[in-house]
Amino acid sequence: MPRKRTVGLSAGEAVLGLVIEQPDSASQLGRRLVERFRSAQFTRSTGHNALARLARQGLVRVVPDDHAPGEEEHEERYEATPQGVAHFSAWLRSSSTAAPALREELQAKIAFCGPDDLPRLIEAICAEERACASMFAAAQGRLSAAELLAPRRLTGAQRWSELARQAVLRDEAAMWGMRFKRLERLRARLEEMGAEVGDPMEEIQSRANPEDVQAPARAARA
Questions:
Q1: Could you give the residue range(s) of every CATH 1.10.10.10 domain in the chain?
Q2: Mind listing the pLDDT tens digit for each residue in 138-153?
Q3: CATH 3.60.20.10 fits 11-93, yes or no
Q4: I need a labelling partner for 2 at 20 to 30 A (CA). Which of 41, 111, 211, 222 fits?
Q5: Cα(93)–Cα(91) distance, rounded to whole angstroms?
Q6: In whole angstroms, what is the distance from residue 140 CA to residue 16 CA?
Q7: Rounded Cα–Cα distance for residues 54 and 83 (Å)
């Protein structure tokens, strides 16, 4: 049984799922990992390392090579073992009654910051707001493209796969939008705190262009 986690998706589970969907080479699995889970910001090397761990654990194995003598050898392809399929199925259907651990770095920074740190901290939040707005727009773009380019005639399994893909993209966009709004509220509260303690907020105003924050705000609300 897979152990219960208090963190997000691991590269191991993602790669194992991709192998079960379609046996593939290490290089192609790395590419598929990056493309399938863009917001997770996995790299191809992360996929290669995860694949090696899965092989050591007996969850995947090399597909027997059936090329004829004299033929050009191709990159090794991997498939899931019966143990790997059972492991993945247990992970997929598992649940935890406990809430996941909330280890938000930004909250720790706020907890430890002093009034003199506030201008820089607010600038950092503004930068993260812009990044979230950009990720929100990118996710919305991928969702629109998926809906536009989805084949009209699909088999039952193909239709389910496409619907699941669109559900993930829609949820991804929603998560970036919610994070943006949360940061926006948090930044406003920190600005209020600075005013309450008499912090020289002029430093923030002189550095930050109001359009830097308002532009992503409009994007996330669109």
A1: 11-93
A2: 989 988 988 888 777 7
A3: no
A4: 41
A5: 6
A6: 27
A7: 11
